[in-house]
TrEMBL record:
GO molecular function ontology, one term from the record: ATP binding
Transmembrane segments: none
Provenance organism: Methylocystis bryophila
Highest classification ranks of the organism: Bacteria, Pseudomonadati, Pseudomonadota, Alphaproteobacteria, Hyphomicrobiales
Compartment list: Cell membrane
Segment of the intact protein contained: 74 to 340 of 340
Protein name: histidine kinase
Amino acid sequence: WFEALIAPLRVEGYAPAAVIALRDLTEARRVERMRADFVANASHELRTPLASLLGFVETLQGPARDDPKARERFLGIMREQTQRMARLVDDLLSLSRIEQHLHLRPDTPVDLTMLVAHICDTLVPMAEDTGLSLEIDIAPNVITPGDRDELARVLENLVENAIKYGRPDGGEPGKIRVTLVTTAREAIFSVQDNGPGIAPEHIPRLTERFYRVDVGKSRAKGGTGLGLAIVKHIVLRHRGKLTIDSAPGMGAVFRVVLPSLRVDAEA
Ligand code: ADP
C-alpha cells in the first residue's frame, strides 16, 4: 500500500507538471492492525472471566442463595477468576511500561549469579509439587548491566514455563536444567526441559502477545499468554537475544544471551 501526495509544478516557459511523492504505508498498516488485534485480544481475555463472574454472582443471588456448599465452591471459583484478571491487568501494564522505555538502556550492574540462585530457590517447591527436579549449574561472578526486577521477571518466567509445560508425556522423570555461563562478553542463561516440546510452526510465534500452543492448558495453568512477550521486550531493552530450540518429543531450551560486565579477579 502506498499513499500518493501530488503537488502541481508550474515554471514559466515550461509545460505544467506535477511532483508525485509515494509513501509506503505497508508498515504503518501492519502496526495499526497489530494494535487493533491487541486491543481486541486483551478485551476478549478480560471479558471471559468477567462473564463468568457475573454468572456466578447471579447464581449466588438466585438458585444457590441458601446452599452453603455451592456458595463455598462458587466463591472459590470467583476468587480464581478475579486473581486471573488481576494477573492479566498486571501483565498488560508491565508490557506497556517496558514498551514505552524500550529505547532506554538500564545499566545498573546486576549480579546474575545471585539472582539466578535466588529465583531457583523460590521455584524449587513449585517444581517439586509438579514432580519435576531442578538441576542447577551457575557460574560465579556473572554481572550484567540492567534492571534487577526486569531480569528477575525474565528468569522467573522461563523457569515457571518449564515447570508448567515441561512435564514429559511418558513415564520419564521430569527434569529441568537451569544454567548460567559466561564468556568474555556475554552472560548466557538457559532453561532446558525434557517435556513434550514445541512444533516448529509455533516457535517463531511464541513471543507474540496472547499466542499459546494450547489455550486450555495455558488457562488451566493460570497463564495470561503475555509471559514470553514480556520476556522478549525485556531482553531487547537489555541489548540481549532470546532463542528457542525445540522439537516435538525433544523438550525445549529457552536461552537468553546478555552483555556481561567484566569482573576484576582481584576484587
Ligand atoms: P502463558 O504461559 O501465559 O500461556 P507465555 O507467553 O509464557 O504464556 O507462553 C506462550 C506459550 O508458549 C504457552 O502457552 C505454551 O503453549 C508455550 N510454551 C512456553 N514455554 C514452553 C515450554 N517450556 N515447553 C512447551 N511449550 C511452552
